[in-house]
Amino acid sequence: MIMGCSLITELDEIAKSAIAELCNMILGYTATLFSREKIVVDITPPTIMSGDNIQFSIPNTVVVCIPLLFEDESKIELNVSFVENIS
């Protein structure tokens, strides 16, 4: 993966920060699109989780997986969870 002009070879704190910022940009743009349709959304800061066989459960949510595929066949999955109609 390349960040700016630097090749990233490990998932260190700088790489995690870059991934979090990418998530912020994607979700910020998505919130803008929803706003144009008069749909209000609240965005929370991203949480970075890494490792094998990570499992978690968030009641009453829907999770959408967004795979990011790179030229070297590596992959990062962004899992976005949302809750509809919070009162």
From TrEMBL:
GO terms for biological process: chemotaxis. Pfam families: CheX. Keywords: Chemotaxis. Residues 9-65 form the Chemotaxis phosphatase CheX-like domain. CDD domains: CheX. It comes from the Bacteria. InterPro entries: CheC-like_sf, CheX-like, CheX-like_dom. GO terms for molecular function: hydrolase activity. This is CheC-like family protein. It comes from Candidatus Desulfosporosinus infrequens.
